[in-house]
Amino acid sequence: MSFYMLCKVLFSRKVVTGLLLLQLAMTLALLLNSILLAQQTHQQLSQPTGLDLDNILLVQLKPTTASLRVYPALEDLLNRQLDAVQAIPGVIAAAYSNQSPIAQGGNNGNIFVVEQQERTNVPSVPMYFVSKDFFKVLGSQVLQGELPQHSVSLDAPGTPDVVLTQSLAQKLFGSASAPGQQVSRGRVAAVISDFYGQRSGSHVMYNNMQVAPPYGVDWGYSILLRSQPQHTTAVRQQLDSALRNVEPNIEIYNIRTLAEQHQRLYRNEYGLATLLALLSGLMLLVTMVSSYSSTHFHALKRQQEIGIKRALGASKKIIFIELLTENWLCTALGSVLGVFLALLLNHALAQVISIPALSGYLPLVAITVLLLCVTVATWYPATIATRVSPATATKAL
Amino acid sequence: MEQFIYYLKVSFKGIKRAPLPYALTIFILSVGLGVFFANATFYYQLNRDPLPHKSDKLFFPMLNLVPYECSTDCKTPSVLSYNNVEKLSQTDIPTQAAAMYSADGYLRQSTEQAPLPVSIRITQRDFFSLFDVPVLHGSIWPDNSARHEVILTKSSAEKLFGRTNVIGEKLLLDDRNVTVAAVLDTWQMLPRLYDANNQNHLSDTDDIYLPLETGYDMNYLSNTQSQTFDDTDYRQLSTQGRTGALHQLQYWVQLDTPAQQQRYWQFMANLVQDEKAAGRHPSAPNNQLVAMRNIVSYFGGESSDIKAFALVTLLFLLVCLFNASHLSLNRYLSNQYEFSLRRALGASRSQLQLQMLADVLLMAIFTIIGALITGFAGIKLMNQLLPANSLFSNWDLPLLLSLLVIAFVCSYLVTLYPSLRASFGTLNQQLKE
Amino acid sequence: MITLTNLSKIFRTELIETHALREVNLQVEEGEFAALTGPSGSGKSTLLNILGTLESFDSGDYLLDGKSINGLSDSALSKLRNEKIGFIFQGFNLIKDYSIFDNIELPLRYRGLKPAERKQRIEHALELVGLHARRHYFPSQLSGGQQQRVAIARAIAGKPRILLADEPTGNLDSLMARQVMELLEQINQQGCTILMVTHDPDQARRAGRNIQIIDGQLHDSTLYEPLSAQSA
User: Which of B8, B33, B72, B137 could make a disulfide contact with B371, Cβ separation 3.0–4.6 Å?
Assistant: First the structure.
């Protein structure tokens, strides 16, 4: 069957073909953009966090009575809770912190090198007020200087020493050595490896820590702990009762692994990607229905024609391939249109959400998927169509 | 009527003759419309105006009264300091005005009880009239001064006491004594436009209300956004918080007429000028007076995922419409012979059109049922995947009605073209074919 | 050329069995022009369809050019049909959205001939039926007689050994019918074997041999002697 003849047949059914083409194009456009979004979400979820996500547990909690939220009762409570958590078998280290890493936002502020504010100011850098094992829980490597060994009250004269993550130290001091230098929040004691701080910050790896009890816990606080991998589940189950045994007047907001925390952080992206993927699936289904029905009805309408062709020497295989080719051609044409449409849709979507630009091999993948679906959907009605009895069909009318 | 029932019978016969294409048409239309419905619900609810008669009269004034000199990003802070609000309140131009923020607290009747975590809106007297909040029992605070009196929502009163008329009852709010001054009737402002920073307009209403002055006295910090631009110790809210640059307040004023708005705008300009003249606020003036209607877009809080999805579901609906009309065209073409026969037997075009209408009606009914089921499932799924929007998943009457109309129109469109083709084709040719 | 031995065909529905052909034996020699006659429902068309391999049979044997077609695959049968058999139908059976040229080209395409050869054959066939000038017309633009001549052109373009015609003049007026008959005779004279179903006794007489079918059984006769030699 020649290409020319196929085109002739297709275009003799303008409306039907037009509808089919448009639909194929839209399906491809949507499919492509869904794949893009899913890819992006996957990338976001798999970008390095610098943390052992599966084996660090995070508890977010708050004392429910006002008297427990002021010093010295608060510091006493924090230490008692840490002791209790550390006593759970399988716990390697535990620490408190005014906030958790891997968060959307939280307690943050600007930081700069003293007397060089203009040049070095970095806004929205998270400030963590932590107990000294915080670094051990996160598994941080000390790259420069030494970690502070004692907790110093924020209200004491002078400010506690500051620990910076590597990226932040580089941003503030370039290649120069950071320890001993003065930044707006205090003297730099050490530089540690990067970890994921706040998504809304200047840079997710910019973090600043001070070993000190938090100013206040009006927004609650976090207890972080690292456990031996084989004990993580068991530790998790004991946390609630261990903490309540220490002090019943607390509200535990949640107990999660950092991996879960990470997933929640990208929940919206994940949700949207899932929805789009589902919709793409539905669209493929609809396209399959349409390929199916178009072949089915087309064949039904052309029974006589198929019968004539059979009489003139076309084998079942030829008829089958003709029908399939017709749909392939349609899909190919629709795909070309669809790539243009995908670019348009990509552009429109980029106005409201962040989505990478369309490029490379993706259209080919999507077109292959589409072709595959169309083929599967055409298979059955095309097989049925080949069963037309030439004797009956040529006798009609 | 008898005639119409006959038409319906004929429609049924047509379906029975080719049930698969009919079922597929319904399926495709239902899925397309259902997905569209699900997203349209969120889109409609998220973009609706909760106070249509007022949303262009309520304004959020923002100004650059901050101690720093901005060089690059001179955006006005999206929350005000206590001091800012004090200065902004020194005028009687607005019909009403209220400052507010929210905080978390624990509420109980006695220390023996387990505490109930509550969200507290810390605000001023006019809040309730600004946003048309209905009062069930008691009365709102008579002025803006500090008082240990809380106003409960109906549901928190029921949760705490098991009844609603609890005026004068004593409660412990974070272990401090307060009395109940009023209980609100069921009220939910969706979206909660008075709290649009950081997409908080998507949240549920707060559980209890506390006077602003008392909130500061009790040292409640905002649980959504607080910014300090100087050395203010945020643990000293009642003292330093009232004077320093600790920003955490939203402030809403009601300006009914354009003249009033103009005057208030002028007042803001003068205020900033005076402050600068006094040498207090080095930043360049950048006054904002944002109407409630525009507040979400001002804060950039429009739900982009729903918007993106709206675009996509619309496309999907189009595809489904194309597809369904394609299917029904095929169905009609295969019935064309019968159609022509009817015409040959003397059916007029209008009679055939009536027949078509019966078809449309039948299809619309099936489609609407299918679409509602798909839409319902879609909403449940979207609530799972995008939980931030879950408050906006309800169907109300106008929404439901417009959805029904859309479904009917779609069913009509899907049958229209094929029916025209079937009833206006040349009779002769069709019979011969 | 064609040998049928004890060939039977039964149509079955849920309720009844119909013996369309019973133990038919037939021998057709190369170059014969045979008419198949018989009342409606006697099995003429069934026989023609079986001869054209459009329909299968239940028992017996069918030798075409000395080779049995029993057990041939669909592809092999299609090839056979394409190369050796030409069809002419009562309803013309032209594909209506193909031009005259495209219609005639179809079987040649299935045979896989090169474009130049296809063109040459089509033109030759069109000249034979006298429709060369109309090769770009569509079937609906032609009269019934012209359409049937196109169908004949299509049937002979592939130079078949056998031409099967099912009431080729059934839908035509007498003038047109005569033209078509003359054309068929001309083709027969060039060596093509023709089997033609007809109701028309005149046409049957013009054929060299008359095969009558009644109730699925053959009554071969040479009723209209001496137009052609009789075969056993």
Answer: B33
- Least confident among A97-101, B196-200, B412-416: B412-416
Mutation target to probe the C interface, by most C beta carbons within 10 A, among A308, A318, A397 is A308
pLDDT of residue A326: 84
Q: Could you tell me the two tokens for B149?
A: 């009196």
DSSP A150-202: S---TTSSS---EEEEHHHHHHHHTTS--TT-EETTEEEEEEE-----BTTSS
Which of A24, A36, A30 lies closest to A360, judged by CA?
A36
**CA pair distance C225, C72, nearest whole angstrom:** 38
Number of A to B CB contacts under 8 A, please give it. 137
Confidence of residue A6 (pLDDT cuts 50, 70, 90): low
What is the C-alpha to C-alpha distance for residues C168 and C152, in angstroms, rounded to an integer?
A: 9
Q: Which residues pair with A111 in a beta bridge?
A: A122
- Domain segments of chain C as ranges: 31-59+73-221
**Are the beta carbons of C10 and C19 closer than 8 angstroms?**
yes
Structure tokens belonging to residue B295:
């507040």
Q: Does B107 touch chain A (CB under 8 A)?
A: no
Cβ(C232)–Cβ(C36) below 8 Å: no
pTM above 0.80, yes or no: no
What are the residue ranges spanned by the domains of chain A?
3-46+267-395, 65-248
Residue range A153-199, pLDDT digits in tens: 888 888 899 999 999 999 999 999 999 999 999 999 999 999 999 99
pLDDT digits (tens, 9 = 90+) for A253-274: 999 999 999 999 998 888 888 8
- pLDDT tens by residue, C172-229: 888 888 888 898 999 999 889 999 998 888 888 888 888 888 888 888 765 444 444 4
CATH number of C31-59+73-221: 3.40.50.300
| Owner of token pair 């014969």 | C32
Which residues of C are less than 8 Å from A316 in CB distance? Answer: 74-75, 78
- Residue B144's SS3 state is coil
Domain ranges in chain B? 2-49+303-432, 64-286
Beta strand ranges found along B261-326 (DSSP E)? 288-291
What type of residue sits at position B290? Answer: V
Using an 8 Å CB-CB cutoff, list chain A residues near C165. none
HSE, side-chain direction, 13 A CA sphere, residue B414: 36
